[in-house]
């Protein structure tokens, strides 16, 4: 949408020749004047003539504003680029100088800039308004990154560049440093460092790297200032641990929020506060690869609001299992409530059991279901340790990870027999409340007679791909990277659409990138355990890659045994050809099957990926990101195939 080109004299007239009485703001790059044009209030920004800001920057900002049209981006009304000559004094003499005037005209924002509303300890606005500002800023930035033919990186996002209208709707402004790129995946280096230091990511300050994660870092810094104030931002970075900072912010907002007669609305506000501060801390991670993309942030907020809408639709008592109770820990669920929804953990409600506990179906009053896992702890954890781990699991949010709704750590007195009499004893319960998966676990759909198990090839491929995406999230995108260590079909659940979701983090280890852990104890299913873990206790993300390879083979071949028939040693090529031929025969039996050759090629590719994942040498296994790229045809398997070593046959 092209803007109007104004003459300089027109803007001089409506600003009373840029009178100080009409000046409403001033910054490092220009002064802003309030004016009225055709009955509409507008803001006229007169740019300073600064070294480093030239006609190219002006044209860039003008072009970028003309390309965008969004409720959370300031609307450009017009511009002026005027060159004239004027007598000026220079060195004690009058000379004729060439004066360049650059001006931009925008819709007028009655609420001023966001920085005027942020104090030392918190934002001066109420929480509902703060949350709307956070949402709107995220949506505006997402529009710049993902709704353009060529994405726009803002590169100077900060509270003074977020303006508020009369309804306190946020609008991003000042695109003078912005740049258009071919793709959000693109990054480049620059030697020119400009902007505001506390909103610049470390890779830009130290190496001049510019990527889509630049704006995400700036967004995180803005959100932290909104929820914690200016002093809170520095306290969060320098004085407190991540957990301490989150709890400090939450407690401060609890003190400001007025408890409602219906406790849910108060608790939902606290849930939003917690989500925003956790999200902001992920955005300001020093490692740009660990920061979320802006579309992920917007999606997370949309999911939160959808969940809140669902919570508000259920009866008050029932919603206690879905939203945080206002106790010392916000995700703690009462044991009695979990007993009520599982009919006191009766056998009729049992969904399954494993080495770490028994899972029961919980039925809420409106008929919705949850899964309640009663953990068996060989070594009981302290309440603090259990709740810290629970808090971490609550941050895991991905379509291919089973969502934790809450947890319970509670000690009760029970009557037990002791030396021919009954005595009271303390019994500590550890429970998890999880989303319910109606189609059960993947192992229910794997059998020797794989052709009769009911899963067509496209569903199986979706399962393989989904498991890989979930594992990539755990390894590379979670707040703290996680190695699962017990990846197997019983720990992959299927929702109503057969979307796979990884569960059961009972063995999981937190790790830092490139870290190798040694352990003297291990547990797990032998057929899925990598040899270096099984024999030497070595833990790296490659242990999960081995397990993934075994699962891929099982999903394709239907074999329940680890993972190949005994004659695999003869030749990987023979094995692949034999399994592809089985599928070819199966698919040819289906009338009107139109994608036979394409699917057979896909099956062959998946088998090959499975084989290279179970290479006995961990360094010759691909990362999960490379596996996804292979599935999507973006990564060659040639190197891995050349280095493939046929694994020794093991039996369960």
Automatic annotation (TrEMBL):
PROSITE patterns registered for this protein in UniProt: PROTEIN_KINASE_ATP, PROTEIN_KINASE_DOM, PROTEIN_KINASE_ST
SUPFAM superfamilies: Protein kinase-like (PK-like) (SSF56112)
One Gene Ontology CC term in the entry: membrane
Topology relative to the membrane: Single-pass membrane protein
Chief subcellular location: membrane
Binding site for ATP: 46, 374
Residue ranges annotated for the Protein kinase domain, each copy included: 18-302, 345-640
Keywords of the record: ATP-binding, Glycoprotein, Kinase, Membrane, Nucleotide-binding, Repeat, Serine/threonine-protein kinase, Signal, Transferase, Transmembrane, Transmembrane helix
Gene3D superfamilies: Phosphorylase Kinase, domain 1, Transferase(Phosphotransferase) domain 1
Key word Signal present: yes
Localisation: Membrane
Swiss-Prot/TrEMBL GO biological process terms: response to stress
Gene Ontology terms for molecular function: ATP binding; protein serine/threonine kinase activity
Keyword Kinase: yes
PANTHER family, per database record: C2 CALCIUM/LIPID-BINDING PLANT PHOSPHORIBOSYLTRANSFERASE FAMILY PROTEIN, PROTEIN KINASE DOMAIN-CONTAINING PROTEIN
Protein name, per record: Protein kinase domain-containing protein
UniProt source species: Triticum turgidum subsp. durum (Durum wheat)
């Amino acid at each position: 949408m092209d803007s109007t080109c104004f003459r300089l004299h027109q803007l001089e007239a409506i600003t009373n020749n840029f009178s100080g009485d009409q000046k409403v703001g001033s910054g490092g790059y220009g002064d802003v004047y309030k004016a009225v044009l055709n009955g509409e209030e507008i803001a006229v920004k007169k740019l300073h003539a600064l070294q480093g800001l030239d006609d190219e920057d002006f044209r860039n900002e003008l072009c970028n504003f003309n390309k965008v049209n969004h409720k959370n981006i300031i609307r450009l009304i017009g511009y002026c680029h005027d060159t004239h000559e004027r007598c000026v004094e220079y060195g004690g003499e009058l000379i004729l100088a060439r004066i360049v005037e650059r001006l931009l005209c925008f819709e007028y924002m009655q609420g001023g800039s966001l920085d005027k509303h942020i104090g030392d300890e918190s934002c001066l606005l109420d929480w509902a308004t703060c949350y709307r500002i956070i949402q709107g800023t995220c949506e505006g930035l997402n529009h710049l990154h993902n709704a353009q033919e060529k994405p726009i990186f803002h590169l100077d996002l900060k509270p003074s560049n977020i303006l508020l209208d009369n309804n306190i709707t946020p609008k991003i402004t000042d695109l003078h440093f912005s740049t258009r790129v071919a793709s959000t995946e693109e990054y480049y280096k620059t030697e020119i460092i400009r902007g505001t230091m506390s909103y610049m990511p470390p890779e830009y300050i130290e190496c001049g790297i510019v990527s889509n994660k630049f704006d995400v870092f700036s967004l995180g810094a803005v959100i932290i200032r909104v929820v914690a104030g200016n002093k809170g931002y520095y306290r969060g970075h320098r004085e407190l641990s991540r957990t301490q900072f989150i709890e400090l912010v939450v407690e401060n907002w609890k003190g400001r929020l007025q408890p409602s007669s219906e406790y849910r609305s108060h608790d939902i506000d606290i849930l939003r506060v917690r989500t925003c501060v956790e999200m902001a801390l992920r955005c300001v991670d020093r490692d740009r690869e660990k920061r979320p993309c802006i579309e992920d942030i917007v999606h997370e907020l949309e999911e939160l609001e959808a969940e809140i809408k669902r919570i508000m639709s259920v009866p008050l008592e029932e919603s206690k299992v879905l939203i945080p109770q206002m106790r010392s820990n916000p995700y703690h669920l009462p044991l009695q409530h979990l007993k009520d929804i599982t009919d006191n953990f009766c056998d009729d409600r049992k969904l399954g059991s494993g080495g770490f506990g028994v899972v029961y179906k919980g039925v809420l009053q409106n008929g919705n279901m949850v899964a309640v896992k009663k953990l068996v702890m060989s070594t009981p954890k302290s309440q603090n340790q259990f709740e810290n781990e629970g808090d971490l699991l609550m941050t895991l949010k991905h379509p291919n990870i089973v969502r934790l709704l809450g947890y319970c750590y509670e000690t009760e007195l029970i009557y037990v027999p002791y030396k021919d009499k009954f005595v009271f004893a303390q019994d500590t319960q550890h429970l998890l409340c999880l989303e319910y998966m109606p189609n059960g676990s993947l192992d229910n759909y794997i059998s020797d007679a794989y052709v009769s198990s009911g899963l067509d090839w496209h569903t199986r491929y979706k399962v393989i791909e989904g498991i890989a995406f979930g594992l990539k999230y755990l390894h590379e995108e979670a707040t703290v990277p996680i190695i699962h260590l017990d990846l197997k079909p019983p720990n992959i659940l299927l929702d109503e659409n057969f979307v796979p979701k990884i569960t059961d983090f009972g063995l999981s280890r937190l790790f830092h990138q490139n870290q190798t852990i040694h352990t003297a104890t291990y547990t797990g299913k032998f057929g899925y355990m990598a040899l270096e873990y099984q024999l030497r206790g070595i833990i790296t993300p490659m242990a999960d890659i081995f397990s993934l390879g075994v699962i891929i083979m099982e999903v394709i071949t239907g074999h329940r045994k680890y993972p190949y028939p005994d004659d695999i040693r003869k030749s990987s090529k023979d094995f692949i050809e034999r399994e592809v031929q089985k599928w070819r025969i199966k698919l040819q039996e289906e009338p009107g099957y139109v994608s036979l050759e394409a699917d057979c090629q896909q099956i062959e590719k998946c088998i090959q990926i499975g084989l290279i994942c179970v290479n006995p040498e961990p360094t010759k296994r691909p990362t999960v990101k490379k596996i996804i790229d292979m599935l999507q045809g973006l990564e060659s398997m040639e190197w891995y195939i050349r280095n493939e070593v046929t694994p020794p046959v093991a039996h369960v």
